[in-house]
Amino acid sequence: MPSLRPPQGLRLPSAGRLPAALAPVRAAVTSGVLATLAVPPLAPPRGTTIADPKNALLLFDLVEKVLAYDSNNEDPSGQNPTLDDVAEVAYEFVGADGRTIGTTKGYGRMLYQRPDGGFVAYFSEEIKLQDGNVIRTGGLIDDTRLTAGEQATINAVGVAGPFRGAVGFRQFRPVVPHKEYQSNIVLYRR
């Protein structure tokens, strides 16, 4: 089995390792500036960027088929999760016309077990669409509900291509757990 290593995330240096002149920048970033920039607008007025259909990427009812699934949990059904579960996955996205529109490579890690026995995981991925868009997603997944057939929704951000900087979400619901999903991707520019 190949190594199951999630991609490295952004890490801000500790204040002690930054030049003194950059300490206020770090403080601003960690105190909520990024959150403020990411907050969606409340009821945007007509005529704004978000109201223009050219500023939205709306992909609904995609079929997501497994290309590779590598997990340290030998139960492919997902019915026997553990706190040690880690997986590396690759899927292709197929549109309503039957053509492949892109691929994704992702990583999942079980984080904790709720008092009711359910499991919560973190899933992140990079989606590469054939139109040149690259989308990074990530978020908490209720793994127990997902395995039972419920839809999961995680944040999505365009990191390259025509929708670079656009924000939105990605949804997926298992048709066959770990093998096939019904998926939606929505991005919009603000």
TrEMBL record:
For the biological process aspect of GO, one term held by this record is: antibiotic biosynthetic process
GO molecular function annotation: isomerase activity
- What Pfam families does this protein's entry cite? AOC_like
Could you tell me which InterPro entries the record lists for this protein?
AOC-like
Q: Where is the Allene oxide cyclase barrel-like domain?
A: 67-187
Return the protein name. Answer: Allene oxide cyclase barrel-like domain-containing protein
Taxonomic source organism: Candidatus Protofrankia datiscae
